[in-house]
From TrEMBL:
Coiled coil: none annotated. The keyword Disulfide bond does not apply. Multidrug efflux pump. This is Probable multidrug resistance protein NorM. Residues 396-416 are annotated as: Disordered. The keyword Transmembrane helix applies. Keywords: Membrane, Transmembrane, Transmembrane helix, Transport. The chain crosses the membrane at residues 12-40, 46-63, 75-97, 109-128, 149-167, 173-194, 220-237, 243-262, 282-303, 315-336, 345-366, 372-389. Belongs to the multi antimicrobial extrusion (MATE) (TC 2.A.66.1) family. The lineage of its organism: Bacteria, Bacillati, Actinomycetota, Actinomycetes, Streptosporangiales. It comes from Nonomuraea spiralis.
């Protein structure tokens, strides 16, 4: 599991976390308004990614199930058809509505709208890269997506200072550097598909790909929407608090991506009928380790972004209560998704958020931003409990080891 998860972690860390962190580092010299703009902009990009996530997830799971048993060509072709449809449906409205969208989250919408113009307009490139990576992961290859992410990261490191300061493009330069880096990386990644000789076969209904990946997409989308709602709550305490929250989130994501790497590894192995061990135990232990590490590095890491790291440090301290149950929840989600029980994960996530959001409003009026952090811990704990609620308790290790034929014969779990 860890051997399979390690390249995924490097990929996620560099493609998702590091890019945003690098942008924040470079624009931090432009002031708190620039930091807030990038924070809101990257949060919106995560939301857009959540809308599309059903496609690469469905591609990965269906290719994993078919590899060596049925043609994978129909899955790949359907994935690209869905990519084209989602690219138009998400990117075009995002660009056209960039100004009212920016005005929802900041008192200075001009900077954020400028970031949206580039970042949301470049979403088709980002989506295409995830499809390519999803194909390779379905074949059990996590090293090529890792290589692609490293290439993109190196390019962002080089292009950010050039675009932001060298060409004096400011916040828009950060977005442009990211899109340019992703475009070059996509060109490199496409060579992997050219060499892949996918067996031909009958067409695959788009609905099958979407149904397979929809629970994961819904889970991610719900998290993105709640993340934006939390930004709105935190914004009521001032720009400095939004900037501190954004910095803390970016630092925490470096650890959280371990959980998502474990989830993808569990999903890939379960889809391919390979043993996945005990994702729950791995997630809980990893959550505790990540929490300890973040507490140790909180002050120096936050100090890299701002001269007043108090809000970010406080956020990271309180996240200890959130990270342990969250690690278990995310790792378990891979088995649920690949074995056809993704709806249980989505239902548990939504149940946690139903409690978390009202609690965030209530506690923040009493404890300030600390109340928001506490609501996150309560929400993740409730979601984990919901995901583990017995539909007739079979241990997670046993579920993960169950061969595909056995799972199919047994049918869906009661209560699905």
């Amino acid at each position: 599991m860890f051997r399979l998860a390690l390249p995924i972690y490097v990929e996620l860390l560099t493609a998702v976390v590091a890019v945003g962190v690098i942008d924040l580092l470079w624009v931090s010299g432009l002031g708190e308004a620039a930091i807030a703009a990038v924070t809101v902009g990257t949060t919106a990009e995560y939301l857009a990614y959540g809308l599309f996530l059903a496609v690469p997830t469905g591609v990965t799971v269906l290719i994993g199930r078919r590899d060596g048993h049925a043609p994978i060509g129909p899955v790949i072709r359907t994935g690209w058809v869905l990519w084209a449809a989602f690219s138009v449906a998400v990117a075009v409205p995002g660009v056209l509505l960039r100004e009212p969208l920016a005005a929802l989250f900041t008192d200075d919408p001009g900077l954020t709208a400028g970031f949206f113009l580039i970042s949301l307009g470049g979403l088709p490139v980002f989506f295409a890269q995830t499809v390519v990576d999803g194909i390779m992961k379905g074949l059990g290859n996590t090293k090529i997506p890792m290589r692609n992410a490293l290439i993109c990261n190196v390019l962002v490191v080089a292009l950010d200072p050039l675009f932001i300061y060298g060409l004096d493009l400011g916040v828009q330069g950060a977005a442009l550097a990211t899109v340019a880096a992703r475009l070059v990386t996509l060109g490199v990644a496409a060579t992997s598909l050219v060499r892949l000789r996918a067996a031909r076969g009958d067409g695959l209904p788009a609905g099958e790909v979407l149904r397979t990946g929809l629970p994961m997409s819904g889970d991610f989308l719900a998290r993105s929407l709640v993340g934006m709602a939390l930004v709105e709550i935190v914004a009521g305490f001032g720009t400095a608090e939004v900037a501190g929250y954004g910095i803390g989130q970016k630092i925490m994501l470096a650890g959280v991506m371990v959980f998502y790497a474990l989830r993808q590894a569990a999903m890939i192995r379960t889809a391919r009928s390979e043993p996945a061990g005990s994702p729950l135990k791995l997630g809980l232990v990893t959550g505790a380790v990540v929490a300890v590490v973040l507490n140790v590095v909180a002050v120096p890491a936050a100090g890299l972004f701002t001269g007043d790291p108090a809000v970010a440090v406080g956020f990271l301290r309180w996240m200890t209560l959130y990270l342990v149950p969250f690690g278990g929840l995310i790792a378990v989600g891979g088995v649920l998704q690949a074995s056809g029980r993704g709806s249980r994960l989505l239902a548990a996530t939504l149940a946690g958020f139903v409690v978390q959001l009202p609690l965030a409003f209530l506690l923040s009026s009493w404890l300030g931003v600390t109340g928001v952090w506490l609501s996150m811990a309560v929400g993740s704990s409730l979601s984990l409990a919901g995901a583990l609620a017995p539909p007739r308790g079979v241990p997670w290790s046993a579920r993960a080891r169950a061969p595909r034929s056995t799972r199919t014969a047994a049918g869906p779990p009661s209560g699905r």
